[in-house]
Every structure is written in structure tokens, then in C-alpha cells.
Amino acid sequence: MATSTLERIHNGPEGFSGVSATPEWAEEIKRLARQRNATILAHNYQLPEIQDIADHVGDSLALSRIAAEVPEETIVFCGVHFMAETAKILSPEKTVLIPDERAGCSLADSITADDLRAWKAEFPDAVVVSYVNTTAEVKGLTDICCTSSNAVDVVASIDPEREVLFLPDQFLGAHVKRVTGRENMQIWAGECHVHAGINGDELTEQARTHPDAELFVHPECGCATSALYLAGEGSFPADRVHILSTGGMIDAAKASRSTQVLVATEVGMLHQLRKAAPGIDFQAVNDRASCKYMKMITPAALLRCLTEGADEVHVDPETAARARTSVQRMIEIGNPGGGE
Ligand code: 13P
Ligand code: SF4
Q1: How far is the C-alpha of 204 from the C-alpha of 189, rounded, in Å?
Q2: Kind of pairing, strands 241-243 and 214-217?
Q3: Inter-residue contact 138 to 81 (CB < 8 Å)
Q4: Is 265 in the pocket of ligand 1 (CB under 6 A)?
Q5: Angle, nearest 10°, between helix axes 299-308 and 23-35?
Q6: Is 307 in contact with 87 (CB distance < 8 Å)?
Q7: pLDDT-based confidence at residue 93 (cuts at 50, 70, 90)
Q8: CB neighbour list of residue 29: distance below 8 Å, 6 or more residues apart
Q9: Taking the CB of the first residue and of the last residue of the chain, which one, N or C, has fewer CB atoms within 10 A?
Q10: The domain at 108-193+319-333 falls in which architecture?
């Protein structure tokens, strides 16, 4: 192996800080992963070089399902903390590593376990549905978890007579309420700062200047309602507006006959979309929509993680046991690809 990169990586004064995604880096990542009997999972919002080195890339539901089944002893989760925590809940006997444990999520931070206890006390007979973007403690107080790709199926599976508490994302909640037509649904007023920032004005402007494009919108976006409004009032053809999870976007891209697609979600998504459908011109509705937490997983952080076996993700076994039932119900409900 060439001196410079790896010697600098492992011994150099700057430690891992000067590391970038060179072919030597890729070779070393693969070697260390084999040595640890580790599989690398990456979310669709990861940096392109992290997605390209991963064994599996997908949305949060697909990655949870993979984490529950992989044969390797160690899971390296290139995503944010709640995702790695979910993998640990599903596979408590495995070692779960995240390249940077500071990779949080503003949406998961928008509700605490105490908040949820207080809310449940107000609606003691309600069924609690929590988005997977929550802490393990919140999941432990939940009846069924969901992700953006199966939220509609999860809510539709609940007795229509029962009140539902849906948390924490207000835009996903509004989307589910719209699609299921359910009235007895209380929605927590949380949001993801990245998706909430993709607003209706930007979307309207993009739709106006790209009249022939299709539109893929993640249901966490502040502009999801605007997209449907544009379709409803006829300024954008309804059959070209698709509200999709990140995994659902990949499936839709493969099936699309359009030459241009406007994408309303975190910009990391463009990498997998361009790989899935190279003939389509994918454009971000907001090219500043980048999740700083997802981007903490750098080539240097991944190398450090595999070298040092850190950061290891721990979930208190009692909390994990409480959370497991709701997470397991989540991975059993809904189609694998997700969709509208
Ligand atoms: P997906 O469930 O679509 O992968 O989204 C996860 C997420 O964090 C969205 O911001
Ligand atoms: Fe959380 Fe938003 Fe980042 Fe997704 S994009 S991980 S919801 S902060």
C-alpha cells in the first residue's frame, strides 16, 4: 500500500483529519470492515463517497430491515444517531458503530420522553404512532413506529375508532391525515429544520420555471402541502406530483419517463437518484437543503470508526426491550419500496 495516505491516516500528526476518499482509503475501509466482520449501511443522505463504499444504501425503513437481518457481527451505521440506535434495538447482540455519535437529528430532538408522557396522559386511550426519527426512550413509550415510507400503512392498520397520537413531524402527520382521511388524529408540532426550510415559495417558483418536470417531494417538507395545492389548482399536473420517502424516490426514478425531475428533500438524495436513472436531469428544489448531521459522517470519521471500533452505540437493555415491539411492528408493515 502506498505510504503517504495510510501512514498519515494511522500515524500522522494530524491523525485522521487529512483523510479523503482516495482509492487507498476505499481499499483500507474494505480491509478493516472484513477484519471486523462488519457491514456498512448508509442512508440516502450520506456524502456520495460514503454511499459508494457502503454495502447497503437505502431509506430508514429499508436500512432497519437490513440491520435486523444481516449476518455480520458488526453494523457500521453511516447515518444519524436514531438510525444506529434503531439497529441496536433490533439486533442487541451485535456491535453497532456510528462514525460520529454527535450526528443527531433536529426532528428527533423535537419531542422528549417527558413530553410524550404528558401528551399520553391527556389521551390515555390513544394509540401512539412515532416516526422512527425519535430517541429510543420515546420509542419505548410508543405502540407502533413508522417511517415516511410506511406511515400511511401504519395509521391505516389502526382501528378507525381509536384516537391516534402521531409524532413528532407535523408535515408527515398532515400528509398521513390527508391520505387516510382520518379525523381522530392528533399531530405533534415538530419539524426537521432541513425539510421545513424547503418552502412553498421556492417550490412554486421552480414549478413555474420547469413546467415539464416531475416533482418528487419528501413528506417532511414544509412545501408538501404547497405541492398538492399547485396540483389541486391545476398549475402543476397532479400526475406529476409525487410525495415519496427517499426509497420511494429511487423506485419512482427508475419507473419515470420524464427527462427532468425536481427533488424536494435533502441534497444527498441526488446521488442515488442520478445513479438509478442517469438519463434524467435531477434538480434540487432547494440546493442549500443539506443536513449537517448526516454530513458529519466523513471519510475520515468512517476510517477512524473502523480503526478504533468507535463510536459504539449503546441502548439501555430495558429501554431497548420496551422499544423493540414498536420497532418490530414498523418493519412488518408496508411494502419494501415505500411510496405515496
Ligand atoms: P427516509 O425515511 O425517507 O429515509 O427519511 C429519513 C429522514 O431522516 C428524512 O429526513
Ligand atoms: Fe433529522 Fe432532518 Fe437530518 Fe433527516 S434531514 S436526519 S429529519 S435533521
Answers
A1: 24
A2: parallel
A3: no
A4: no
A5: 30
A6: no
A7: very high
A8: 40, 53, 302, 303, 306
A9: N
A10: 3-Layer(aba) Sandwich (3.40)
Residues 142 and 116: their CA atoms lie apart, in Å, by 9
Q: Which helix (H) or strand (E) holds 163?
A: none
pLDDT digit string, tens, across residues 299-322: 999 999 999 999 999 999 999 999
* Peptide bond just before 311 cis, omega within 30 deg: yes
CB of 291 within 6 A of ligand 2: the answer is yes
Please tell me the distance between residue 89's alpha carbon and the centre of ligand 2 in angstroms. 20
Nearest CA to ligand 2 atom 8: 105
| Three-point CA angle 276, 66, 327, nearest 5° | 120
What residues have CB less than 8 Å from 51, skipping those under 6 apart?
42, 44, 57, 268, 271, 272
By alpha-carbon position, which residue is closest to atom 1 of ligand 2? 105
Res 225: pLDDT: 80
Question: Is 198 near ligand 2, meaning CB less than 6 Å away?
Answer: no
Write down the pTM of the prediction: 0.92
- Structure confidence by residue, pLDDT tens digits, 39-89: 999 999 999 999 999 999 999 989 999 999 999 999 999 999 999 999 999
Ligand 2 in contact with 172 (CB < 6 A)?
A: no
CATH 3.40.50.10800 fits 2-104+293-315, yes or no: yes
The full set of domain ranges for the chain reads 2-104+293-315, 108-193+319-333, 198-284
Query: 117 CA to middle of ligand 2, Å?
Result: 24
Ligand 2 atom with the smallest distance to the CA of 291 is: 3
The CATH superfamily holding the domain 198-284 is: NadA-like (3.40.50.10800)
State the Cα–Cα distance between residues 192 and 111, nearest whole angstrom: 12
Per-residue b or e along 30-57, where b marks 16 or more CB atoms closer than 10 Å to that residue's CB: eebbeebebbbbbbbbbbebbbebbbeb
